[in-house]
Amino acid sequence: MLARLTGYLKKMQGTTRSPPRVSLREIFLSWIGAFLGISAVGCLNYRILDGSDVPMIIGSFGASAVLIYGAVKSPLAQPRNLVGGHVLSGFVGVASYQLFHAHLWVTAAVAVATAIALMHATRTLHPPGGATALIAVIGGDSIHDLGFLYPLVPAGLGAVIMLLVALLVNNLAETRRYPEFWI
Amino acid sequence: MTRNNEQARRDPLAISDEDIYEAMKDVPGYLDVTPGDLKEVYAHAYRHALARIASSVKASDLMTSTVHAVGPESPLEDVARLMAREEISGVPVVDETRRVVGIISEKDFCSNLGDQQARSLMGVISECMDHRSCLAMTLRARKAADIMTSPAITVHEETVLGEIRAVLARNRINRVPVVDRRGGLVGIISRADILRASHERPC
């Protein structure tokens, strides 16, 4: 019994170390890419479609920017994951809210957990997807009013806009290429 | 402590954690994998590569095709001269159809010199010094068939690298003649040939 507990706790020890830091060039490229990508969805939200009721920017786009501009080689940052993850998770979030929102902590938990499970199952795992699902639940009236439009607008659309910026900007850099795969 | 050293010697993967870490720095961009996982995958891939090579590289890929051979009736004086001139430590003995009937190595010469059944060169030299004479003279009149090891261990042209290694190790020999379906001599493989093949690392 004690051996099992020790074994259990030992797993928390860690076996390896943090990967090495990236070059200054990489840091610069990440900054530029993220600035341009978020500017694109930001302009859409704050300037072009300023008057409309539909929000064009959601918190999870910040998370996506980390991946598609900061960790471009990661399997989690690829187009399939970016677009698939946001759309699928948006759908799961809205569905969770509409099925049950009497106790939001349950709704939120179900939304995020199910989004992760389905992203795994469809090989579209994208960490910001968890945020997209969560926002569908906790995002307030402006999000709830969108209903099932939410997975497409703003979630899917914003993802596609940021993807276009990623394709253009990442490949301009000599040391980068994007994506690693489409399917 | 000795077990660990033996383990390390037998382990073909000599990559350290530090090697992996430095390698990650060689690739520009953020690699979304931990050094630990990368090392684990590397070790598996390396193991797969070794297994693939051991089962795909054949005797015909490795062997030296121009192989010197002697007949069973060849005088040992000629055999010794051939081995000395070509700087080889072993020579197959073939019949008139070039079928391998035996093999002569330095060991065979050593063990047939003198009374003491000396198995090594130093054993022979030591005996020579004791008798203050050269024991090799006793063999001058004899022929290949007298001292050859027969039947010779051989491998077929299609034998794979893994099996060839096992044959050399199991029989504690340093070279093995390669034969075709008929048993005819087509080449010879030495430990040096295998070492050379092992240095062709998978990229």
Summarize the structure.
The complex is a heterodimer of chains A (183) and B (203). Chain A has 183 residues and is an all-alpha fold.
Q: What distinguishing features does this structure have?
A:
heterodimer; A: 183 residues; mainly alpha; 67% helix; flat; B: 203 residues; alpha+beta; CBS-domain; 2 domains; three-stranded mixed β-sheet; two-stranded antiparallel sheet; 10 helices; elongated; disordered N terminus
Content-based structural category of chain B:
alpha+beta
Number of helices of chain B: 10
The coarse overall form of chain A would be: flat
Spatially, the strands of the biggest sheet of chain B line up as 3-4-5
Oligomer: heterodimer
Which percent range describes the beta-strand content of chain B? Answer: 5-15%
Give the strand tally of chain A.
0
Separate helix tally of chain A:
8
What's the mean pLDDT score of chain B? 85
For the biggest sheet of chain B, the summary is: 3 strands, mixed
Radius of gyration of chain B: 23 Å
What structural class should be given to the helix and strand makeup of chain A? Answer: mainly alpha
Q: Name the pair of protein chains with the most residues at their interface, and give those residue counts.
A: A-B, 20 and 14 residues
CATH architectural arrangement of the largest domain in chain B: Roll
Bin the helical content of chain B.
40-55%
Structural shape of chain B: elongated
> Beta-strand level of the residues of chain A, as a percent range?
under 5%
Structure description:
The complex is a heterodimer of chains A (183) and B (203). Chain A has 183 residues and is an all-alpha fold. Chain A is built from eight helices and no strands. Chain A has one domain. In chain A, helix 4 packs antiparallel against helix 8. The longest helix of chain A has 25 residues. The termini of chain A are far apart. The model of chain A has no long low-confidence stretch (mean pLDDT 96). Chain B has 203 residues and is an alpha+beta fold. Chain B folds into two domains: 55 residues; 97 residues, CBS-domain, CATH 3.10.580.10. In chain B, the strands form two sheets. A three-stranded mixed sheet of chain B has the order 3-4-5. In chain B, strands 1-2 form a two-stranded antiparallel ribbon. The radius of gyration of chain B is 23 Å and the shape is elongated. The chains are: A mainly alpha (183), B alpha+beta (203). At the A-B interface, loops of A face helix 2 and helix 3 of B.
